[in-house]
User: Fold this.
Amino acid sequence: MTNTNLQAVIVENRKRCICEPCPSYNECMRAGDRLLFCITGKTGNCTFGMKGCSCPTCPFRKARSFKKAYYCIRGSEEEQV
Ligand code: SF4
Ligand code: SF4
Assistant:
């Protein structure tokens, strides 16, 4: 995906991401306004614990036929081959 396409996907879909209420989503991610990790990959310098992941119930993940989880920690669907 080109950078322009990636940005378009993020702008279009970020409201569909349900990471924010997830117990693993933390202040560092919030401060960076980071969402859609399944597309964008791991959070930059944030440290975190695996306290649960809401991705398996996410409609965006289902719509894209994604199968993985903990994208903020493990990387995007594409990266988690
Ligand atoms: S699958 Fe996870 S990272 Fe991707 S949009 Fe849904 S909640 Fe966000
Ligand atoms: S990718 Fe999964 S674990 Fe990470 S913040 Fe989103 S829902 Fe939570």
About this structure: Residues 3-74 form one domain. The chain is about 35% helix and 0% strand. The two ends are 16 Å apart (CA to CA).
